[in-house]
Design brief:
Helix content is about 10%, strand content about 15%. It is α+β, with helices and mostly antiparallel strands. A 5-stranded antiparallel beta sheet has the order 1-2-3-4-5, with no helix packed on it. A hairpin with a 2-residue loop joins strand 3 and strand 4.
Amino acid sequence: MSNYAKITDFAIKDSLATGNPAKAVRGEEHDAEYNAIATAISSKADTNSPSFVGPVSFQSANCSGTITAVTFSGALSGNASTATSANSASTAGTATNATNLQTTNWRVFESGGYLYFQYAGVTKARLDPTGYFNANGDVIAFSGV
């Protein structure tokens, strides 16, 4: 992103004597100013429905509506009850009241007090409120990852 920096000081021309060639306002001066303004404006995000390409960093942000993140690091706080996707989240942080977390292939969601783990739409495991873990396949402990 670039910021606009004035190229020509037009106000100084008012103090020049009549007939001084530097007093004249030339088209190329205006053209250079308008090009600098256009460049600065086109490199900024729109206020309404901004779109970003590449990494975006925020010190803090208040968001509403749908937030789609390809990667995320940091912490989420507040009411995230409508959070449905955290694609390839590197650090998910805290998502208060989240009911459905989904990546490209995996989905983790709560239903009836149980926490379900699905892969490609097929339930692979379930954790019940008492701590029992039920899996469709073998559970291998202490094998390393």
